[in-house]
Amino acid sequence: MKELSEFCKELKKDFTPRIKDTKKPVSFWSEKDILNKKIVDAFVIILRTRGCSWALKSGCSMCGYFNDSIFIDVSDNDLITQFEKAMDKYNNQRFVKIFTSGSFLDDKEITPNVRKKILTKLFETAEKVSIESRPEYITDNKIKELKKIIGTKTFEIGIGLETADDNIRQNFLNKGFKFNDYKKAASILKKHKISLKTYVLIKPPFLTEKESIDDAIKTVKKIKNITNVISFNPVNIQKNTVVSYLWNHKKYRPAWLFSVVEILKESKKIAGNIHIKCDISGGGNIRGAHNCKTCDKEYLKTIADFSLNQDINVFKKLKCNCKEMWLDQLDLEDTGFGSLINMYG
Ligand code: SF4
Ligand SMILES: [Zn+2]
Questions:
Q1: In a domain, 260, yes or no
Q2: Domain hosting residue 281, numbered range
Q3: Hey, which of 65, 174, 240 would you mutate to test ligand 1's pocket, going by the most ligand atoms within 8 Å of its Cβ?
Q4: Any residues with CB less than 8 A from the CB of 131 and at least 6 apart, and which?
Q5: Which of 47, 62, 63, 110 to mutate to test the pocket of ligand 1 (most atoms within 8 A of CB)?
Q6: Number of compact structural domains in the chain
Q7: Residue 243 in contact with residue 206, Cβ under 8 Å?
Q8: Cβ(161) to ligand 1 under 6 A?
């Protein structure tokens, strides 16, 4: 939709990058993840690049990653300096995730030369490396080149599909690619035995809570035989985005954690053989997925536990009185023409 794309662009018009140091990565840390069905420490690095090329054109309606980007080209030397700074704290973790606030396979963000240097270094120690990319950068030639570095180790590419519904992806998210583009990228990865992680959004803007639950579940049904991992991302309110505009005008509420649990339970039933997880940025906060102050922590802890252990029984012990409000919202929002979206804060 042209208007949405113009609006996404407009919201970035006066944006000036907060951090201008091209030699500093955005962040790096260690966290728990799964490797060969075991829980291990994974090292995560986020490099500061010029930013996602799509965000520089207009960008997705919920994405504020560009707030961490620098909007000018970052030299190869500076990117390597960022990588080396992060690697000073690397503790030989066998699983490394290296991200940008865009696509690791976009030559405008990371040149083939830098990509090769980074991956060669990481695969000296790591058994598995994970990156993220939009589907248009996943080409047969590029993957063939990478295979020379990866060898027999595990390489995972995450694609932000968000939903299998082209209408929602295009008209509500301004994502700029189709389900078929995702399927094409997935088949290239399959051919080269590269693992695919698919990000699915919970609570895209302009959908009710109920529509969002249905959309996430429909998406799982459509991708369960295509992807190796499904990672759900409940929207959190990031600055200078369409979602933050709607939220400021009381036209958007981030997902309830009850909805997240519903989606996880149902997804595991539908796609039991694949890894289903959910990382909740800003969870328990009014700008992120939340229930009420009494139960947020317990729900978040249980969702994190499920993401590692894959056992839906962990959800059985959860309960809170605020569930009534969530059920009311599911019942009433269809008749509220959007005005109930913020009814319970
Ligand atoms: S969600 Fe991904 S593709 Fe969309 S603007 Fe953000 S980084 Fe770019
Ligand atoms: Zn509660």
A1: yes
A2: 2-335
A3: 65
A4: 97, 98, 99, 104, 105, 155, 156, 157, 158
A5: 63
A6: 1
A7: no
A8: no
Angle at 131 between CA 22 and CA 111, to 5 degrees: 50
- Which CATH number belongs to the domain containing residue 39 in this structure? 3.20.20.70
The ligand that comes nearest to the alpha carbon of residue 294 is: 2
| Mean of pLDDT values over 180-207 | 97
Task: Report if residue 344 sits inside a domain.
Answer: no
Quote the pLDDT of residue 265: 98
pTM of the shown model: 0.95
**255 in any annotated domain:** yes
Cα maximum dimension of the chain: 58
Q: What is the pLDDT of residues 316-331, one digit of tens each?
A: 999 999 999 999 999 9
Cβ of residue 158 lying under 6 Å from some atom of ligand 1: no
Residues 162-182 have pLDDT tens digits of 999 999 999 999 999 999 999
Structural domain contains residue 340 = no
For residue 318, which ligand has an atom nearest its CA?
A: 2
